[in-house]
Specification:
The complex is a heterodimer of chains A (about 240) and B (about 325). Chain A folds into 2 domains: about 160 residues, P-loop containing nucleotide triphosphate hydrolases (Rossmann fold); about 80 residues, no CATH class. Chain A is about 40% helix and about 25% strand. Chain A contains 9 helices and 10 strands. In chain A, α4 crosses α5. Chain B has one domain: ABC transporter involved in vitamin B12 uptake, BtuC (Orthogonal Bundle). Chain B has a two-stranded antiparallel ribbon. The chains are: A alpha/beta (about 240), B mainly alpha (about 325). At the A-B interface, α2, α3 and α5 of A face α8 and α9 of B.
Amino acid sequence: MTALLSLDAVSKRFRGLIAVDRVGFTVPEGAIFAVIGPNGAGKTTLFNMIAGAVAPDHGAIVFAGRPIHGLAADAICRRGIARTFQLTRPFPALSVEDNVTIGALLRRPEVGAARERAQELLHRLDLFDKRRRIASTLTLPDRKRLEVARALATEPRLLLLDEVMAGLRPTETDRMVVILRALNRESGLTILLIEHVMHAVMALAARVLVLDHGTMIAEGTPETIVHDPAVVQSYLGAEAV
Amino acid sequence: MIARLTTGVVRRSTVLLALLLGALVAAPWFVNDYLLTVLILILYFAYAGQAWNIMMGFAGQLSLGHAIYVGLGGYVAATLFVRFGVAPWLGLLAAIPIAAAAGAFIGFLAFRFGVAGVYFAILTIAFAEFARIGFDHWDLVNASSGLFLPVREYAHNDLWRLRGDPTMFYYVILAATVVAFALCRLLLRSRVGYFWLAIREDEQAARAAGIDTFRYKMYAVMISAAVTAFAGVFYAFFYNNLFPEQVFGISRSIGIILGPIIGGVGTLFGPILGAFVLTGLAETLNSVMTAFGLDLPGATQVFYGICLLLVVVALPDGVWPPLARRLGVAEDGK
């Protein structure tokens, strides 16, 4: 498998605090890759650098063979990376369908075609029946699904999911896992996810990277990660083993 | 084009719009000269409000200095007419690019350097003030003594030179309002319209969805400025005089935005309804006061203030959205 995304010694400092310190890893095309770690480990900062919301201070981010570090968020999305926000950011006053249509308009300039694509995705994410609802009236789980649908509408090669399982009930988590697996299997979509719900990580990810205080403390398959002493101590806690 | 204009229109709203348009077309036969001037004023505000609404209502960029585009439009066309005898419709071909260029300049400065929200609004006021002061000292346009268009007897209406009686002006501004309404609807239903709404709702999320927000905000300012320029041309030729203080003043900018705010920011029909409500009520108030022999300077402004206050408190989305629901013609989610 060829590398779709690779990070090399990427660092970001906020005033005195080193949020991300020389992190490097490679996500192969078609993989599902997870980043875990305690709160404040630098996961979201890492995501924001990949998605172009903030620029890294040092290091290189290469996507599909071309460097993308320092590009603006919209340019990175057009290159083929779509992201969700941990604190969901729908277009609040617009309908669910319009939210997703806007994403689809990136690759399909015709409104009719974009709307059709949006409806397909709303079906997939179990939101079709709520398509006429105003986005601000949705419950948190529905908003998480809407984030995913809007991101998918931009037809990414790489999907960045920032804690889409957080706040979901176990049955909803399982449903999301099924949806993401299907997307990955059918279209070869590469997925990079930040996740706290270990159950979902174990079910989805082929590889897991563990961050703590901005540095990588482990990387490997989910099975090896959960037995890694450093990971257990810093993040999972003894009872997890 | 035509298909896109009419798709998704509730049958009832087509009927209501047709009735309104019919009434407006027939109006000159039934109203006296005074009422006709009031209707012209209403349509002028409806038109300018539509133009402003493109920027604020659709793309979420608050301009409090839209008078600059009115003034530029008016001055360019009037100067060309007075000094070189250029007909206003040809003058419009110069006025529109100049207003759009001014919008592009202000927009570029603001959006390039991240001036947003209230700071952007203040910047727009500043530029309108620059223009006011600049024109106040510019001899080519007669500086502060004002630019006057030659007024001749209305022997016959000259549509090409926009010289004629109020009825002609009424139909000109009515046609312009209809065109602006159709243009706004087309824009709102197209890719650019959706991207504007996304920027208005959440700019960061819009960028994450791949939207080049700088570019689309520039489109909004330039289109809005271009559309507003015609309001200025109309103003100049209808009133036959231009004073920098009047056309570039902050009160003109505020006058433009009151209609859409009362009617409903971001809605298609709000600016039109708002102009009718506001100007209609203000003129009614005037005639009532005249009838009772009252002379209270500033009463209209106080009245505007009260209207604005009532709408902001009671109907924060404007008068149109709840009315549209009542009539069963809601503009689906927008």
